[in-house]
Structure formats: structure tokens, C-alpha cells
Design goal:
Strand content: 5-15%
CATH topology: MetI-like fold
Number of helices: 14
Shape: flat
Number of strands: 4
Number of domains: 1
Strand order of the largest sheet: 1-2
């Protein structure tokens, strides 16, 4: 009987397939198949729940979302507005905190942990329960005069009070959502060679010059990464009204077809936005290769 031999290279390839096979199986069972069903639901109509029989109905649900549903488009535009407001604040705040924490200060490890704790505590159901209890409103409520004297609030009027209240609420969200970004910026700042700063100081560069000509270009890949992460995180945030709207159709009203269509519209917009951001900002990212540095 002829023996079957494998070369070392083929053995390594086979071992690699064995190691990744659980991931591939999980991807097909728990991701690819549900993804296929959601696409089928968004383009069809359930005719029989037993056996989950679906008939083709075309783009009926997508047309309903853009033309018939009077709540989806305003809610969608509001989510975009909130994201475009929140993401720049998160990027600027996390960069400033990372620069400060990267300095040689006392209790530096404590401050790094303190800014990351809200990210660990504010995930999923914990954040939802905090917001349901109106913790931020109790602490920052301007109407109760907790931060600003009541007489001054009455003088400003309800519209101004509402704007300021929204601003303080945005600050809470920014503080709560900046943990990962701060750590990523810290890793980028610590990877910059100290010799670049030392040589620039010898040439008479100021701290401001070094920030714009050394720090910012060197961490530009981290900036792009943080922008992409912040965009996706903002659109998937637990308080996002679009997600609640989709869940209400899918789980409360059992309208799985329309919920799937709304989900694909939302997902498609996020992917398109990420591609556009990467295409536009990617041209300004500083990259380096083995032979030397190259500025794009």
C-alpha cells in the first residue's frame, strides 16, 4: 500500500485550515446565513410563519422607507446630524487627553485607567439602564438649577436653556465614548521616535511647530482609524433612535420584512460613509515603508 506523504509546507497549510475552521464554520452558520435571510426578508414577504416561507415582493419595503414612512427619513437625518456633531468632538477631546496623559506626570497610569473605565461600564444594557434612570438629566439638569442659578435660567428663556442642556448632554456622551480613542492615540504618540523631537528642538522648533509638523503627521493613521471607529460606534450607539426604530418593527410589531429593509438601508449608508471617509482622508495619511518614510 502506497503511503501518502505531505511536504512541510502543505502540513503548515493544513494546520492553518484546521485552526481557522471553527471561525469559518461560525461565520457561515451565525453570520452568513442570517445575512442571507435578512436580504431575502427585505426583498420578500412572509406568507407562512411555519417553515418561514417567503415570497418575492421586490423593493416594496425600500420604497416604503423613503416615500411612505414619514418617521424614518427625519429620524435618519437626525442621527446623521448627531454623529457629525459628536465625532469631531470625540476626536479632538481624545487627542488632547492622550497628549496630556502621555506627558511625564504623576499618576499617569491612574488617569489612563480612569478615562477608559466609562467604555467598560457603558456597554450594552448597562448604558441603557443608566439612561433609562435619567442619571445624566438628574446630574446635569439645567431646569433644576443644579449648575446655573434658576433666576439666570428664567432670564435666558426656555430655548437657550434647551440648547445648553443639549450641550452638557453632548459633553457626557463625548466623555463616555472616548476611552478607546484615547488608548489608540496614546499608542500612536508613544511610537513616535524621541529623536525627532530632540533634533527639531536643536533646530529651534517650538512645541506648536513640533505638533503640526511631527506629531500630527506621524499619528495621522491613528486619526483616520479613530474617525472610522467613532463613526461606526456613534451609529451603533445604544441611544441611537434608528436602532430602536428598527427593533420596534422587528421585535414588537413582528414586521420582520420592513425591519430588515431598514437595517440594510442603515448598514449600506454606514459602509458608504466609511468608504468615502477612507478615500478622502486616506490621501493625507503619513505612511512609511522599510526603505524609508513617504508622505502621501
Amino acid at each position: 500500500m502506497r503511503k501518502f506523504y505531505l511536504s512541510m509546507e502543505k502540513k503548515q497549510v493544513l494546520e492553518g485550515y484546521v485552526f481557522v475552521s471553527p471561525f469559518i464554520i461560525g461565520l457561515l452558520v451565525f453570520f452568513a446565513y442570517p445575512l442571507y435571510i435578512s436580504v431575502k426578508l427585505s426583498l420578500g414577504k412572509i406568507t407562512r410563519m411555519a417553515g418561514f416561507s417567503i415570497e418575492w415582493s421586490g423593493f416594496e419595503h425600500y420604497i416604503r422607507a423613503f416615500i411612505i414612512d414619514v418617521n424614518f427619513i427625519p429620524m435618519f437625518l437626525n442621527a446623521i446630524r448627531q454623529t457629525l456633531t459628536k465625532v469631531p468632538l470625540i476626536i479632538v477631546f481624545s487627542l488632547l487627553i492622550a497628549i496630556l496623559v502621555n506627558k511625564s506626570i504623576r499618576f499617569r497610569g491612574f488617569f489612563r485607567t480612569a478615562f477608559f473605565i466609562p467604555f467598560l461600564l457603558g456597554t450594552g444594557e448597562v448604558m441603557r439602564q443608566l439612561l433609562n434612570q435619567d442619571v445624566d438629566l438628574e446630574v446635569l439638569s439645567l431646569a433644576g438649577g443644579n449648575l446655573i442659578p434658576r433666576e439666570f435660567l428664567i432670564y435666558m428663556g426656555p430655548e437657550v436653556v434647551q440648547y445648553i442642556d443639549t450641550f452638557f448632554g453632548m459633553i457626557v456622551v463625548v466623555l463616555w465614548s472616548s476611552g478607546v480613542q484615547i488608548l489608540l492615540f496614546l499608542s500612536g504618540l508613544q511610537s513616535i521616535p524621541v529623536s525627532l523631537y530632540e533634533s527639531s528642538k536643536v533646530d529651534g522648533a517650538t512645541e506648536w511647530d513640533m505638533f503640526w509638523k511631527i506629531t500630527l503627521p506621524m499619528i495621522s493613521p491613528i486619526i483616520l482609524l479613530n474617525i472610522i471607529y467613532s463613526l461606526v460606534d456613534s451609529f451603533a450607539f445604544v441611544t441611537n433612535p434608528i436602532l430602536s426604530y428598527i427593533q420596534s418593527y422587528g421585535f414588537k410589531q413582528a414586521n420582520f420584512e420592513y425591519a430588515a429593509a431598514l437595517g440594510w438601508i442603515y448598514f449600506g449608508f454606514i459602509i458608504l460613509l466609511v468608504v468615502v471617509v477612507m478615500g478622502v482622508l486616506g490621501r493625507y495619511v503619513y505612511v512609511s515603508d522599510v526603505k524609508g518614510a513617504k508622505n502621501k
